[in-house]
Design goal:
Belongs to the LOR family. The chain has 3 helices and 14 strands. By secondary structure, it is mainly beta. A 12-stranded antiparallel barrel has the order 1-2-3-4-5-6-7-8-9-10-11-14. It is globular and about 50 Å long.
Length: 242
């Protein structure tokens, strides 16, 4: 009997595939409701996720706080909401399950995770240097982001503790594990690297793709798109399949 696929469920088990997953993410403007990010399954071409901005009159608008970002599934249901914590010296963002309505209304909904820049000294450099802490009940461990999101060359790394805990505490991970990676998109027909508005999100088999998309949303807000130097100088080698 084969070994059971390890899963890292943070947002929902339905977002944890049995194989490595590759999403093509298209970045748009935030000037109109529903714009922001759209993610498509590379194999099927089907829409997997999109982003709605709260407080702009969109379908998730209503009484929501301006600036909140909702990650919607293919059916348009909010699966994750990210919100900037104020005040915050390190540009900290919290992620809430669903539309985050309870927390937004002064309730006691706890965030699933919290992400922050590891140091204010790195602000504006383009280096990711972002730490993500799991806050959900029973969750443990930390993730960090290496590389540069503005260059579309960075990876999400799970600490050995977080990866071992995902196996119910039975595993003994000795090293950190790359669970997701952002990289430039290559046009397979023209064999050219596409612009930064279209990029690839690779997600390791068993890892929560919705959580990975949530980290992408936070990176987009924390690091922006400012790039210093030559875009051709990638700070990391890709670890996902070509």
């Amino acid at each position: 009997m084969g070994q059971q696929q390890q899963q890292v469920v943070i947002v929902g088990e339905e977002h944890c595939g049995g194989e490595d997953r590759e999403l093509t993410v298209r970045k748009t403007t935030l000037f109109t409701p529903g714009d922001g990010l759209e993610a498509y399954d590379h194999r099927t071409g089907a829409l997997a996720f999109r982003v709605e901005t709260y407080g702009r009159g969109g379908e998730c608008g209503g009484g929501a706080a301006a600036g909140d970002l909702a990650l919607l599934d293919a059916e348009g249901e909010p699966v994750l909401t990210v919100r900037r914590r104020r005040p915050s010296l390190h540009n900290r963002w919290d992620g809430f399950l669903g539309d985050g309505a309870a927390a937004r209304g002064g309730g006691h909904q706890k965030p699933l995770f919290s992400a922050r820049r590891s140091s204010i000294l790195g602000a504006g450099t383009g280096a990711a240097a972002v730490l993500v802490d799991l806050l959900a009940p029973g969750a443990t461990g930390e993730f960090h982001v290496d590389g540069s999101f503005p260059r579309r060359c960075c990876r999400v790394v799970a600490s050995a503790k977080a990866w071992a805990a995902a196996d119910g505490g039975g595993g003994e991970a000795e090293e950190d594990v790359v669970v997701a990676e952002v990289r430039r998109k290559v046009d397979e027909d023209a064999h050219v690297v596409m612009g930064r508005d279209v990029f690839v999100l690779w997600v390791r088999a068993g890892f929560d793709a919705a959580f990975a998309m949530g980290i992408v949303l936070v990176l987009d807000r924390i690091t922006g798109d400012e790039v210093d130097g030559d875009l051709g100088e990638d700070p990391l080698e890709t670890t996902s399949p070509a």
